[in-house]
């Protein structure tokens, strides 16, 4: 575009206009002073008389400019300081958590049956070994240890610097006493089966030896059980142990010690306080833990939403719905348990489930991805085999995918023909299955999903809900007598994946947990090899053999590995929850948690 042309006269007139405008903006005597002295900035003496030089409007403008400059300098300074401030964890502070239930047996001999007891016992007691952040057993009360070449003998040397919370020394006699108590038939410890047949020997004042009948690779995991004080429990008759007040006011040797409890008029324990153990050097930042007990999950969730507690490990997907509507101020941590939820088919009962093709059809009729994503809101991981989805071994071999058409074809070929919505055999008998489900979520939701899937292929499915009012109710009425046709249940493996309690033929009756009553020679051989394996390659090959034997027989329909949500206030920091073998493992790194900070400048 052509630029407009201006004459020299026009440009001179323009410059003159600008100069005249600038002069109007400057103080009246400014140009005269500039011509005489060449001084642009006022001197200190002149500044004193600035009020006489500038007009009222000019003074207001200058004051405003000065205020803006001052504010800017302050703002920049604050930003610079803030950018170089580091918040370091500081000691002190309290963490409060909601628990559903009541503490009954804060005693490692009894604690395995109830989650609340396991949680608190883990904090109060210490064992010969403990789990590190990768769930590997590492020495705790142990100074040193050795394993014999044949893998049957474990010799452990005890540390000599450990005190009980009452300041009595912890000795090798306490260790021997604990393991003998675990195997005492009068005490009926949930952990007793683990040490059945193990010879326990006091070698000297600092050493204990465990001799096994057969090599067992996971034995160090068994030695993570907490040690109890002989000078307290040794004077109480075993028949009175379950009634002893020390079950609620325990004396342990762990990093946290009992401080106080608060009960209502009915004896319901409302809260329970722990403080860092006086007998140990300070190993963490928090100085107090407070556990508040609630009768049910909705009450615990409400306390969390009201900020009456700092944290809660959700029990169900219903709880997640309660906290998924824009609740701020909390962080959700995924706790992926080494567990498998499955429908176990009772092969010990007569009926249609003794037919392999029917079990295969029921297995193929379940869309596991839809179950996890839609019914369980993504709070699980699809599992297609007997091992948890958290293990690499679970992906050794893919199981059949969801295939409704193939499932219906199998039923047709087995002589179960469609008659409306239900299939019948040649005798006109309907194909009925009763699915036993514990009346809680996510089990209840998953059970309804499976019922719909089976009914969609013509299998009349009834759900039998079992009250989970007490853990013993499920044990007594369902698991021990194997009183079910098909059972939806979750088996938890622990830190070391030992399939023996769940799949070895010797565990088909109580107290074993072979819930399908599965019996297979190839599977038994593989399991026994896994327990003896001294290297990963041997174990992996045996896991594959076990998987093949189970896939060929279909004793269960494997569904998912559950994920539990641990919800904690953002005021609590330093949490590094990674792997868990049980919910109690969420406290494995509690020494790094903190609620208070010290500010430090770093440049």
Structure description:
Residues 1-14 have a biased composition (Basic and acidic residues). One of its GO terms (cellular component) is periplasmic space. Residues 1-20 are annotated as: Disordered. Keywords: Signal, Transport. By secondary structure, the protein is α+β, with helices and mostly antiparallel strands. The protein has three domains: 43-83; 94-310 and 571-599, Periplasmic binding protein-like II (D-Maltodextrin-Binding Protein, domain 2, 3-Layer(aba) Sandwich), CATH 3.40.190; 337-563, Dipeptide-binding Protein, Domain 3 (Dipeptide-binding Protein, domain 3, Roll), CATH 3.10.105.10. Helices cover 32% and strands 22% of the residues. Strands 12, 13, 14, 15, 18, 19, 20 and 21 form an eight-stranded mixed β-sheet that branches. A hairpin with a 5-residue loop joins strand 5 (142-147) and strand 6 (153-158). The protein is globular and about 120 Å long. The two termini are 55 Å apart. Mean pLDDT is 87; it is low at 392-399.
- How would the global form be characterised? globular
Q: Specify the oligomeric state.
A: single chain
CATH superfamily of the largest domain: Periplasmic binding protein-like II
Q: What is the CATH topology assignment of the largest domain?
A: D-Maltodextrin-Binding Protein, domain 2
Number of domains: 3
CATH class of the largest domain: Alpha Beta
């Amino acid at each position: 575009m052509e630029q407009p042309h201006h004459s020299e006269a026009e440009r001179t007139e323009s410059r003159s206009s600008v100069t005249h405008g600038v002069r109007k903006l400057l103080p009246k005597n400014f140009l005269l002073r500039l011509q005489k002295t060449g001084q642009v900035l006022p001197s200190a003496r002149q500044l004193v008389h600035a009020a006489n030089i500038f007009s009222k409007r000019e003074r207001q403008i200058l004051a405003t400019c000065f205020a803006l400059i001052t504010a800017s300098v302050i703002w920049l300074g604050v930003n610079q300081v803030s950018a170089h401030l580091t918040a370091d964890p500081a000691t002190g502070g309290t963490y409060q958590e909601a628990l559903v239930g009541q503490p009954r047996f804060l005693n490692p001999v009894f604690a395995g049956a109830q989650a609340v007891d396991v949680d608190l016992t883990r904090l109060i007691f210490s064992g010969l070994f403990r789990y590190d952040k990768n769930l590997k057993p590492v020495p705790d009360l142990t100074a040193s240890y050795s394993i014999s070449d044949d893998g049957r003998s474990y010799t452990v040397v005890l540390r000599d610097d450990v005190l009980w919370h009452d300041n009595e020394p912890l000795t090798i006699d306490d260790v021997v006493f604990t393991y003998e108590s675990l195997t005492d038939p009068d005490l009926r410890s949930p952990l007793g089966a683990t040490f059945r047949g193990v010879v326990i020997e006091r070698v000297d004042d600092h050493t204990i030896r465990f001799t096994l009948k057969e090599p067992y690779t996971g034995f160090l995991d068994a030695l993570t059980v907490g040690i109890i004080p002989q000078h307290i429990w040794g004077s109480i008759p075993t028949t009175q142990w379950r009634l002893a007040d020390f079950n609620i006011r325990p004396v342990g040797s762990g990093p946290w010690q009992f401080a106080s409890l608060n009960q209502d008029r009915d004896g319901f324990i409302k809260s329970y306080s722990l403080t860092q153990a006086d007998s140990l050097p300070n190993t963490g930042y928090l100085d107090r833990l407070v556990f508040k007990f609630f009768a049910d999950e909705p009450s615990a969730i409400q306390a969390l939403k009201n900020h009456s507690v700092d944290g809660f490990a959700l029990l169900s997907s219903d709880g997640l719905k309660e906290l998924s509507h824009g609740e701020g101020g909390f962080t959700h941590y995924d706790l992926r348990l080494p567990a498998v939820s499955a429908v176990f088919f009772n092969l010990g009962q007569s009926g249609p489930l003794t037919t392999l093709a029917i079990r295969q059809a029921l297995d193929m009729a379940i869309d596991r991805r839809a179950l996890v994503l839609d019914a369980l809101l993504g709070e699980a991981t699809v599992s297609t085999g007997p091992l948890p989805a958290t293990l690499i071994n679970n992906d050794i071999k893919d199981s059949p995918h969801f295939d409704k058409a193939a499932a219906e074809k199998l039923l047709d070929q087995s002589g179960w023909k469609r008659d409306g919505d239900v299939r019948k055999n040649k005798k006109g008998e309907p194909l009925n299955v009763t699915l036993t489900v514990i009346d809680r979520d996510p089990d209840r939701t998953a059970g309804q999903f499976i019922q719909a899937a089976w009914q969609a292929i013509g299998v009349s499915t009834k759900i039998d809900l079992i009250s989970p009012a007490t853990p013993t109710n499920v044990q007594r009425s369902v698991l021990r007598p194997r009183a079910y046709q098909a059972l939806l249940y979750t088996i938890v493996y622990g830190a070391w994946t030992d399939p023996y309690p769940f799949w070895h033929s010797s565990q088909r009756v109580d107290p074993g947990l072979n819930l399908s009553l599965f019996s297979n020679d190839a599977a038994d051989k593989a399991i026994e090899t896994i327990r003896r394996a001294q290297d990963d390659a041997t174990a992996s090959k045996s896991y594959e053999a076990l998987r093949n034997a189970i896939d060929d027989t279909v004793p269960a329909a494997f569904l998912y590995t559950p994920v539990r949500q641990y919800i904690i206030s953002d005021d609590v920091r330093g949490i590094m929850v990674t792997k868990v073998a049980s919910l109690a493992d969420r406290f494995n790194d509690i020494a790094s948690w903190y609620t208070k900070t010290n500010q430090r400048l770093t440049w």
